[in-house]
Design a protein that fits this description.
Largest sheet: 6 strands, antiparallel
Distance between the termini: 6 Å
Strand order of the largest sheet: 1-8-5-4-3-6
Order of helices and strands: EEEEEEEEH
Shape: globular
Strand content: 25-35%
Number of strands: 8
Radius of gyration: 13 Å
């Protein structure tokens, strides 16, 4: 796995599970330090795109099922429609697919939000949620 940006881009002030300013805990990890709208995110693992859509709450979303794993990760709040279709393979570190944005009612400025779960509906904060930052850090290699 790889981080979608340099580890310095991770927003440690609003970690997974944080409740400040929310009615429910934060369902993912945010990256917004030193990156802006339009920044090109790296795919964090090999896998297959399972879902691409726009939701009022989370804006442009991309969900990927990791190879040989029960886990799905989702990018939220993209600038525009991801440049990939469902059923397409992605590779760890690949770029040119998802750009940071500020779409959806739940976004508070341009950033990349990653959610990690055991369901394709990870982008909805459903399933057995995991801390994406810690999950990725434990598997970098």
């Amino acid at each position: 796995m790889v981080q979608p940006f340099s580890p310095d881009a991770y927003d440690s002030s609003d970690p997974f599970g944080a409740t400040a300013g929310r009615s429910r805990p934060h369902t993912g990890s945010d990256y917004n330090q030193g990156i802006g709208s339009g920044s090109d995110a790296r795919m964090i693992s090999d896998g297959v795109v399972e879902h691409v859509s726009y939701t009022d709450y989370n804006g442009w979303v991309l969900s990927v099922r990791m190879d040989e794993s029960p886990w799905y990760w989702a990018f939220l709040h993209g600038l525009d429609r991801p440049s990939i279709n469902e059923g397409t393979r992605v590779t760890k570190g690949q770029t040119g697919i998802y750009r940071v944005g500020n779409t959806g009612y739940n976004s508070r400025g341009a950033h990349l939000h990653i959610t990690l779960s055991d369901t394709v509906n990870a982008y909805q904060g459903l399933g057995s949620l995991q801390d994406p930052w810690a999950f990725i850090q434990a598997r970098i290699g």
